[in-house]
Amino acid sequence: RGIVSKLLKDDNKGSRHQKFLVTINQRQTLLVAHNIDLAARVPLTVGDEISFYGEYVYNPKGGIVHWTHLDP
């Protein structure tokens, strides 16, 4: 769970992904990559509190969460 801190441009290379940053605590921000070819776009604005579930992959910038949709 976290607060949407920034909406990013969609990634349209290969499978299309809606991308946004979520602040989960004072020290960590996550990039969420939500596949919009397999699921509906999530209606978001900066400041929204959201809950999410997916696969977390570490990176030095805080990490990325993907597979936020049902497995087809």
User: What is the count of β-strands?
Assistant: 6
**Which of globular, elongated, flat, extended, rod-shaped describes the shape?**
globular
Helix content class: under 10%
How much β-strand is present in the residues?
Answer: 35-45%
Q: Report the span from N to C terminus.
A: 24 Å
Q: Main beta sheet, described? A: 6 strands, mixed
Using the CA coordinates, give the radius of gyration: 12 Å
Protein structure class: mainly beta
Order of helices and strands: EEEEEE
Widest sheet: strand order? 4-1-2-3-6-5
- Determine the mean pLDDT: 93
Identify low-pLDDT runs. none
Number of separate helices: 0
General description of the model:
- The chain is mainly β and 72 residues long.
- The chain is 0% helix and 39% strand.
- It contains no helices and six strands.
- The protein has strands at residues 2-7, 17-23, 29-35, 49-50, 55-57, 64-66.
- A six-stranded mixed β-sheet has the order 4-1-2-3-6-5, with no helix packed on it.
- A hairpin with a 6-residue loop joins strand 5 (55-57) and strand 6.
- The mean pLDDT is 93.
